[in-house]
Give the backbone structure.
Amino acid sequence: MATSTGTAESEALTADGMGAGEGVRRRDFIEIAAVSAAGVGGAAILIPLISQMAPSRDVLAESSTELDISAIEPGQAIKAVFRKQPLFVRNLTPQEMEQANAVPVSSLRDPESLADRTKEGHTNILVTMGVCTHLGCVPLGAGEGENRGEFGGYFCPCHGSSYDTAGRIRKGPAPANLVVPDYQFTTDTTIVIG
């Protein structure tokens, strides 16, 4: 009787497919194939959707700006465009650097030293966005003969904010210094912004 019970159990397992090796393999293959097909189909749909959100070539081209600063004499500044906004690059004179370093950082509204705002080895080159931090006007002081304000840096004619030679806010409603964008020197006379 023990053998007939064992045979009945094995027949029951074979009948519902759980004990048959062939049935389990076929089911596993079908499940794996279905999941794989769903994954490939999902990827085929998602890849174009995700790639269309990537920036276009013209946007990538504007994401960085390379400038040759060899022609900027001490005391001069140039205006450039970075991401459709004005950019100021100034070659500070030794007197302008002394003037900026003489100001106690603790007395500033937005405390930053000249060394914090320039690159080591190039402390005479100041790179700032040409946008007032108050309401976004373009300050004067980057062009020859422009009003530099009472601190010798930049002056915003819209509401009277005055920045010093290091682009730090000294007077007026602007809450912060002129923004220093990410940049690096690729050579002694070339900088890449962005």
